[in-house]
Amino acid sequence: MVRRCLVPVPLLLAAACGTGVEEVSDVVLARHVHTDLYDAYPGIPSPAGDRVVFADYAADARSLSVYDVATGAGRVVTRRPAGRSRVTWSPDGSRVVYVDRWSESHGVWTLDPATGQESRIVDPGNARIDYPRLLPDGTVTALRHVDAGTTWVAFAPGTDLATVLTGDAEGWAAPVRSPDGRSVAYLRVAGRRGALAVTEIATGETRTLAADLRLGWDTRVEWSSTGGALYLAAAGVDDPLFAGWRVPLDGAPPERLEYGGRDVLAVTPLADGRVALSVYHTRTAVGLVPVTGGEPTDVTTAGSTSAFLPSWRPDGGALGFITFSWRRVRMPIDFDLGFLELDPDGAPTGTVRTLLSEEHEDYGAAWSPDGRWLAFQGHMEQSDDIWLVRVGGSERPTRLTRFGPGADSGEPHWSPDGSALAFSSNGPPLEGNPGSVYTIAVDPDTGAAAAPVRVPLDGFRGSAMGARFSPDGERLAFYGRSREDGRVTVYTVPAAGGTPAAVITFANGEPYSAPEWSAGGASLFYSRNDGSGPFQVWRVDIATGATEQVTTGALGALQPSVSPDGGTLAVTMREAAIEVVALATGSIGADDGARGR
Fold it and tell me: What is the rounded CA–CA span in Å between residue 66 and residue 257?
């Protein structure tokens, strides 16, 4: 039983819950734990509501998982690497429909969810196809992008020849034909904002039903069964969350479909008159666990603030981490560095306090070994660079790198003697750099720094991510992602450069931090999962390659950081899941013209 607010509002402006809200029973059709750390895509139920499909990342390729609602069982049903996107169902629910974005296999594909058999049903040649829809007669509609512009087209069953339905569809997103075939609903998009519009196909007459909408990662629009209303997920001008919306075509005010104070990423009407919401659940916290293993203990949860990417103060008396309030509407533009004092037994004392708060992202609190300097990755001055600031001082941070717009740098790590920083970056982008390891020489007394030096990685052809010095300062550990199959490998390399030595390779790795050395340097901690479920921290013996799982727990763990005494791991505890919830019949007026019970 869930209490929620469903209030008519003009043009998708936020409204508070009023009185007279009744309790209704809803059904969770499926719950999927996402493997990707930042991007979570909505689950889409079949028309009958008996199955739910999710797109997710494994080995840098988007896989599809299908859940059976009756049993609750889900499984990855795709086998080949592909860039699957814009996932929908065929009208009869027998097939999943999507675009494969990869150039060698680009086109519209269908998937038999029972067998995993995939078939390309439209090969667009040199054109780019997006937002496909399979109609009951086998026709495929889609946006078609070529040098001359964007059109909304139809492909007859079994052909790759496009018939233009609308000649000028520039700026369109998520077009979908009405049940009677006479109109098309779509979003006109500029940046991250959009307007909901309906155009009569024969005459070109257009009506705008809502404007100034903030849109999510996977925009989509759906018609009600009779064509009297449209469904979508969006945020109004002042909304802190995405919500679902039912927008009548008769001019009546839109209805806001909220659910439990969570972001709603998609709204799907079902054949039986119910409506399903794809609801985003996420939280992060920093936890502590012995290096010998176990379930981490959360030490940072406080109110709506989340914490991730932990690091240790050199004396072991405090943890640093990134703090933020997670909302899909405002993505990571306000990260700060927080810290938490610990007692001699490792228990937190007091509350989370601010260590550093600059404009935009402050990322990766790295104390120098003597505790005098703090290095971090920041977005000040429209950069994505490494910065240095004196701890407790009044000076402004000093910018150590200048990679320029478009670069993407990782968090820095100090050498044991405090004379150098290591990090990874894909900048400068104009040099065709997919990701490299760098070091910067730093004077521990003055903070004066030399120019960054790219560490030679002889024979390495992938993308390098993260970099950490070994306890003796002689080697660096980093993640490398293959360009061929997306698999992640843990490497070590001499700090001055050389041929990287592969330690272990796995299918789905966590590339947002770096492998962590054990206190003695004989093993490395890293994060992975097996393509489903939460990440966990593992340990690999460098000499033998033997592995063991270190962390347990439903939330999972990643981004390990070893305490100065070598006995404790600080980890990011993270839940990232999508629940697809079918609202109770009649609770939202799923039939055109209804207004609740």
Answer: 25
Judged against a pLDDT cut of 90, whether residue 48 lies above it is answered with: yes
The set of residues, in sequence order, having a beta carbon less than 8 Å from that of 280 and lying 6+ positions away, is 40, 242, 262, 263, 264, 265, 328, 578
Of 409, 525, 394, residue with least CA distance to 464 = 409
pLDDT classification of 325: cutoffs 50, 70, 90: low
34-43, 61-70, 178-187, 286-295: least confidently modelled range: 34-43
Query: 44-45 and 51-58: which strand pairing?
Result: antiparallel
Residue type, 101: R
- Mapping DSSP to helix (H, G, I), strand (E, B) and coil, where does residue 488 land? strand
| Residues with Cβ within 8 Å of residue 428, at least 6 apart in sequence | 403, 404, 407
Q: Do 170 and 186 form a contact (C-beta atoms < 8 A)?
A: no
For residue 453, the model assigns a pLDDT of 95
Tokens 């009779």 correspond to 226
Reported as a pLDDT band with limits 50, 70 and 90, residue 37 is: low
Would you state the pLDDT for residue 24? 53
Distance, in Å, from the CA atom of 156 to the CA atom of 163, rounded to the nearest integer, reads 8
Please determine, for residue 145, whether its predicted confidence score (pLDDT) is greater than 90. yes
- What are the φ and ψ backbone dihedral angles of 121, each rounded to 5 degrees? -105, -15
What is the residue-wise DSSP string for 28-62? EEEEEE-SSSS--PPPEE-TTSSEEEEEEEETTEE
Nearest 5°: the CA angle 421, 376, 37 is: 110
pLDDT at residue number 326: 54
Q: Which residue is associated with the tokens 């600059």? A: 358
- Single-letter code of the amino acid located at 198: V
